[in-house]
Specification:
This protein is mostly beta strands and 436 residues long. The chain has a single domain, classed as 3 Solenoid (Pectate Lyase C-like), CATH 2.160.20. The chain is built from 1 helix and 31 strands.
Amino acid sequence: MKKLTLIAAAALSLTACQNESLADSSSNFDMKSTSAEYITASSLPVTTVSGPITTNTTWSGVIEIDGTVAVKNGATLTIQPGTFIKAKPNAIGEGSGILVVTKTGKINATGTESQPIIFTSYRLLDGNEDTTAVPGDFGGVVILGDAPTNVPTTTTVEGLTGSDYYFGGSNAAHNAGILKYVRIEFAGYDFVGANSGNEVNALTLAGVGNGTSLDHIQVSYGQDDSFEFFGGTVNATNLVSFAAEDDNFDFDNGYTGTITCALSLADTNSSHTTSGGVSDTNGIELDNNASGSSTALLTHPVINNLTIVGPSTNVLSSVSGVGPAYENGIHIRRNGRLTLNDAVITGYPTGIRVEGTGSELSSASVYSSIKVHGFTTAVTGAGTSGIPAANLMTGSSAALFGMSQPFFNNGGWNVSPRNCGNFQGIWTKYDFSVID
């Protein structure tokens, strides 16, 4: 029987010895069977948690979240390196378990490169190597804070209800704790139905302040957005979004932090959201707010060292199995602003689209450091005219812009020399094609 394990997965201390060889790395992504790491972890005792966490608590081993678990009332949740967290499925098989760190709680989830903390599908921890995971098997991780936003401080974070889930305030230095060497897989939950606007993302950061540390976080196979920032001032480094169903990075409600070293990597075989029958999947989606109104505090992140990689083939063509699955590498709209330095965007129909009154790629951007490819349009809209013509490319073949092989579905991929966050290190996983 073929056994599957992970390329570049965490070298966990609980992993059994295997006699393995690498399969062809050009194999397309699809939902594969459970790997050796998860099979071994599934034999460990499971601790089920439910309800609020109101005193300092430590998690290790395998944790099962039953419903929504909120850290609050001054409590700190510490998660040990190598811990697996899964959701208890509801009656229809969805993993509705959600971890929320409220404005009055804190998290210390400090994994290591060899033992990341892994939020993942309950199906991968069932002890059956023939079981496959699907997006939505884990609810998501939500972190709330009282840093500035452009919405009332009585605003409830998307997907949840009740005063425990308010976000925003006046404390720019708010500290929610640490997420470091963390993977979130097969996450996302919609309380109403697909594209209802009432979803929990894989990692939601709402009103989180710059006292919080976010470093080496990978989101894979998300049902909605991989990372969504609702206001706040939190900074982040070394972020990876892989095979997102909706947007890889989403910014709104007055977010003003800085992201340094980020990668989004598309997979043409993953599912995609649509709106009115048209793709709604972007590398970055950025709005000031839902109405597009101008506010005293505008959504305006700074992103340094960004790599956005879509598919290598024009998704608007009649390529079998791909279809119109992607929209924009970066979509700035509804009075949103973006400062962008040292960026490569490739493999989307439009590379950068700036749309609507007040929206702009900021004049503070270092335009000469931005390289953009689009199959039909490289750039359009306010601020994009500053990018040198030599850095803009269109056509059926995306330029590699110095990268060895950026496209996941076009043979073995390698984004060097843009591998600023050790994107292919042992803390990440992209390919299940290791076999006995």
